[in-house]
């Protein structure tokens, strides 16, 4: 399927590995130009080399912390125009809420709520003026089914979800701009492995036993891949998804037990 985004410019945050990398790869395969960001320069350049090898679109890198004002400014400056914005940042650490102080909460909010809002603020009016824009926020399946040890993530990402619910239904929706959230369940990423290590430590199981237990609880009987997550992201960014707006798209292999 031609996604209709050949030549569009995309800014993909935290894209050196994991889900961000999967999204960047799918967008490049669809013909988009991408600016990819991450804090680790070496991993970012390695990913950029893989993306350039696809042979479609231009790939630019910006090493820096997207959760800072300087990091955001550098990323935006590298992108001639932002037609597609994929918001992503590493999730805060798991733990017990009794151990988190105010600084821990503010760091979680900065990374997983306020940074996406700042990037949307910097790009959405330009999208509306050009008559096309796609914003995809990578949040978490924990927004729908909270995980007890991920309280920092539950709180910050739920705040972003509430904000997006209002903005997506503002006048920008009538100007070709869509804003949606992608909610990953258990995907085979470094983030999942760290979460499982914490869960295994709390349960007294070893990590492999804990991972097997997690997989068995998913109807698909496996963890997701970054490539299939990226494919869904690319579709949301396509011309075919112009009537899909303000939604929370859950990708979890059927693990969420609810009807809605």
Number of strands: 7
Q: Uncertain regions: pLDDT < 50 for 5+ in a row?
A: none
Helical fraction equals 40-55%
Let me know the CATH homologous superfamily of the largest domain: NAD(P)-binding Rossmann-like Domain
What does this structure look like?
InterPro entries: NAD(P)-bd_dom_sf (IPR036291), SDR (IPR050259), SDR_fam (IPR002347). It holds the Pfam family adh_short. The protein is an alpha/beta fold and 260 residues long. It folds into two domains: 9-187 and 224-251, Rossmann fold; 188-223, no CATH class. It is built from eight helices and seven strands. Strands 3-2-1-4-5-6-7 form a seven-stranded parallel β-sheet, sandwiched between helices. The longest helix has 29 residues, at 102-130. The two termini are 29 Å apart. 42% of the residues are buried. The model has no long low-confidence stretch (mean pLDDT 95).
List the helices and strands and how they pair.
Layout: E1 9-12, H1 18-29, E2 33-38, H2 41-53, E3 59-63, H3 69-77, E4 84-87, H4 102-130, E5 133-138, H5 151-167, E6 177-184, H6 190-203, H7 207-216, H8 226-236, E7 248-251
Parallel strand pairs: 1-2, 1-4, 2-3, 4-5, 5-6, 6-7
Family: Belongs to the short-chain dehydrogenases/reductases (SDR) family.
Protein name: SDR family oxidoreductase
Pfam family, one: adh_short
């Amino acid at each position: 399927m031609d996604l209709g985004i050949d030549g569009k410019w995309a800014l993909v945050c935290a894209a050196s590995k994991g889900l961000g990398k999967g999204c960047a790869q799918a967008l490049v395969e669809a013909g988009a130009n991408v600016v990819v960001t991450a804090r680790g320069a070496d991993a970012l350049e390695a990913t950029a080399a893989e993306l350039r090898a696809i042979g479609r679109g231009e790939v630019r890198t910006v090493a820096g912390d997207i959760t800072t004002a300087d990091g955001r400014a550098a990323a935006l400056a590298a992108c001639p125009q932002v037609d597609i914005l994929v918001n992503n940042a590493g999730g805060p650490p798991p733990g017990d809420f009794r151990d988190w102080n105010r600084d821990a909460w503010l760091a979680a909010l900065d990374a997983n709520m306020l940074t996406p809002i700042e990037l949307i603020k910097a790009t959405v009016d330009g999208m509306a003026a050009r008559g096309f824009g796609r914003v995809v926020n990578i949040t978490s399946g924990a927004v729908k089914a909270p995980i007890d040890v991920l309280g920092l993530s539950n709180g910050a990402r739920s705040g972003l979800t509430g904000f997006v619910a209002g903005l997506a239904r503002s006048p920008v929706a009538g100007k070709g701009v869509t804003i949606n959230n992608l909610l990953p369940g258990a995907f085979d990423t470094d983030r999942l492995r760290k979460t499982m290590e914490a869960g295994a430590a709390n349960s007294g199981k070893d990590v492999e036993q804990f991972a097997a237990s997690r997989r068995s609880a998913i109807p698909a009987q496996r963890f997701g891949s970054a490539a299939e997550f990226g494919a869904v992201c690319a579709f949301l960014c396509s011309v075919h998804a112009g009537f899909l707006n303000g939604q929370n798209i859950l990708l979890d292999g059927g693990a969420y037990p609810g009807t809605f």
